[in-house]
């Protein structure tokens, strides 16, 4: 089980600063006091200063030893530890948000400080054992008093006015996941990705301290500040979280480099794709599809929409989408048909999509998609993030802001055609040829649905290698859309990067479908 899946499942834009690099200054002990704003008011600037001064010193994880009865817990036993709902933060105050806490244990070894900000002042939440019900776990009556927390989650009356549902959880490294109305947890976000998809060890920064602002009685959002720390970076993060039909999170971050890294991923998203319509090898599973997300959407700086269906590859795949000031990128679950999953427990049709919308000037760089071979659905094997064109070095500061949205239909109002499904199989009709591949791509959308079935819709298909058959486009009445067929005769074992879109005359009717075919 990967870190992303373990850390998240217990629910329980960018540019380098212009001019010369900004080097962290060497100072004394950092106190959590404001550096700007009204006297006595805790502000984001205080967290930024903490991050700057941490960056000037060597990394020191806050990971005091745990008793064996907590550090040796497996997944199921850790999950059996439950927060005492009667102890919910703000439960008796009639506020629109409540907070639950997670104890350290299992893989969650870092001690995380959690503060409440009220009337401009900060107050740490003190660890108490009566905050938790340890279930069937064998723990002594007397335990150390300073075991500490691993993370927290926020609750809000999302689906019913009388029930406080989970809306977001921060647990493990810099992972966090949110859920929207009538959906289940699925895709996960994190603060930063470092050296992902490389032969070397990936680095996982940690949110080591949080400041949660006490909401007002009529609040519709809640603010959380976080302090990021790792061997190579420190950072100050601000999250303004608004639950609802969509969970909307406005993220602001300032990251300070302790030392250079090979690759830094901004606004990373992590998901799972075990098998689905793009899987052209046998998976012995009664369920037709198993995935949290089925595709990557990229909207580049020119407004072109690119859709890349996800795969569970035999070998590691890394794909880059070069862009300047991208408008958005995200991992989507477009397929909402229960019959395509047939899972009465996981309900993959109700997993949220998530999209990153950069704010400000992110400059040149690329969106990178990493697809990792996986043997089970418990592994998160899909990662997407933004990489700036210039790699930061020691002493650099990065500033970026973006809006992160989780929801069922994040493309509501889109008129143009979008990819609904991608299917791959042997070429031919009567006699199949498994050495050549047939691609069948379904497009839907309001504009496509309004076209008469006899409209001459053209499929434009290109490939970097191999030979393509003439594409065929047909009206598909079952989806009120259009189906594109074409076949690829590969050039031996050379991979082929395929692109396709629909047009009518000079009018482009759809987003660009993009796929990397690899013989496996």
From TrEMBL:
<dbReference type="InterPro" id="IPR007444">
    <property type="entry name" value="Glucan_biosyn_MdoG_C"/>
</dbReference>
<comment type="pathway">
    <text>Glycan metabolism; osmoregulated periplasmic glucan (OPG) biosynthesis.</text>
</comment>
<dbReference type="GO" id="GO:0051274">
    <property type="term" value="P:beta-glucan biosynthetic process"/>
</dbReference>
<dbReference type="InterPro" id="IPR014718">
    <property type="entry name" value="GH-type_carb-bd"/>
</dbReference>
<dbReference type="GO" id="GO:0030246">
    <property type="term" value="F:carbohydrate binding"/>
</dbReference>
<keyword id="KW-0574">Periplasm</keyword>
<dbReference type="InterPro" id="IPR011013">
    <property type="entry name" value="Gal_mutarotase_sf_dom"/>
</dbReference>
<comment type="similarity">
    <text>Belongs to the OpgD/OpgG family.</text>
</comment>
<dbReference type="GO" id="GO:0003824">
    <property type="term" value="F:catalytic activity"/>
</dbReference>
<dbReference type="InterPro" id="IPR014756">
    <property type="entry name" value="Ig_E-set"/>
</dbReference>
<dbReference type="InterPro" id="IPR013783">
    <property type="entry name" value="Ig-like_fold"/>
</dbReference>
<feature type="signal peptide">
    <location>
        <begin position="1"/>
        <end position="24"/>
    </location>
</feature>
<feature type="domain" description="Glucan biosynthesis periplasmic MdoG C-terminal">
    <location>
        <begin position="42"/>
        <end position="517"/>
    </location>
</feature>
<dbReference type="Pfam" id="PF04349">
    <property type="entry name" value="MdoG"/>
</dbReference>
<keyword id="KW-0732">Signal</keyword>
<dbReference type="GO" id="GO:0030288">
    <property type="term" value="C:outer membrane-bounded periplasmic space"/>
</dbReference>
<protein>
    <recommendedName>
        <fullName>Glucans biosynthesis protein G</fullName>
    </recommendedName>
</protein>
<dbReference type="InterPro" id="IPR014438">
    <property type="entry name" value="Glucan_biosyn_MdoG/MdoD"/>
</dbReference>
